Amino acid sequence: MAKAWSIKNLYYYLVCLVTLFMFVGGAISSVNSAMQIILPEKPNIPIFYTYYPDYREEYEQPVFGPPPLEELEERRAEQESMQGYYRGYSVRQLLNSMAFVIIAGPIYIYHWRRIELSEEKRCDNDEN
Length: 128
Prior knowledge:
The structure is a single chain. The protein is mainly α. Helix content is 75%, strand content 0%. It has one domain (7-56, 66-120). It has three helices and no strands. It is rod-shaped. The two termini are 14 Å apart.
C-alpha cells in the first residue's frame, strides 16, 4: 500500500534527518575534541630552531651562543601559556560537541516515536 505523505509526516522526517546529522556531527566532533585533550598536537618544529632561530638564516659562518637563561625562561612561560590556551579551547570544543549530542538525541527520539505512532495509527485505520 502506498504511504500517505502529509505535511505533519514530512515535518517529522525532516526534523529527524536534521537532528540525526546534528547527533552524528556532535559525536564525531566530541571524539575529535577528546583526542585533542588526551593527545594534543605538538608543533612540528625542531627544538634547535626554537632556541636558535638565527640558525635558519643562511650565514657563511654561523656564530651564535646559547640564549640567556632569562630568554629561555620567557620562551618556556610563553609556551606553557599557549598550551593552556589550546587545552582550554579543546575543552570548550568538547563541551560544545557534547551539547549537540545531548540536545539532538532526545529531539530525534521524540520525533521518531511520533512517526512510529502515526504509522501504527495509519495501519490500524487501514485494517478497519
